[in-house]
What does this fold into?
Amino acid sequence: MKQTTTATVLADNTANVPTTLVSYLQRLKALDETSASVSDKVHSEVETFVLRALETTKTNQTTGKDDDNNINNKKRKLNDVDEQDDDDSDEESRKKKKELLEERIDKSVKLCLEIADEKCALAARAYDLVDEHITKLDKDLRVFEDEARNNTNANPKNKPNAQGGQNDKKKDQVGSPYYVNEADPNEPTYCYCKRVSFGEMVGCENDKCKIEWFHFSCVGLDPTVKLKGKWYCKECKLNMKLKKK
Ligand SMILES: [Zn+2]
Ligand SMILES: [Zn+2]
It folds into this structure.
């Protein structure tokens, strides 16, 4: 049947979507964790940087005061030459440390930006994947619906849930076409009541029957009791009796 093919194609086309999507989302989650830790690192690095800068400012201020104070300045020069050397190397190592820290912060920030870019790209890819498949699914579903509708209109006598087909010829007609919409205005009607098919339906064994399919309830049959022998509708029964006479 054509419907089955369309449905199979639908299922096949969408089968690997969840897997791909899950792999994207897992990568996104991993990136999220990495970027969170890198961002934490940047914060602590910047904190250290600011603290050190503040310390340097304090020392400079103290040094400035010392410079202003001639007595202290002279004292320093007189008392300890080694200390002066130490101060110089201290300043240099501090400068080096500052530069290293700056470099590290720069690297971390760049890494953060790279991760953010990859995350954006992944999100866009995931979106495209879903979008593409939704568009395709919509298209396939429209084809599927059209096929189902055409099939229903072409074979109005193929009724589901029919029990009346004791005759072999009739049994072949008992199919189960797929009904997309129960409220379809094009759906054929049956029975004396001229309503659409629902529940158990019984078929009249007369090939020339004008109605052919009937609701169990409309012809007074119990759907829980299996039909025995051939069943004919009122009209056909009457016609058969008249013919015999
Ligand atoms: Zn009826
Ligand atoms: Zn009949």
The chain is about 70% helix and 0% strand.
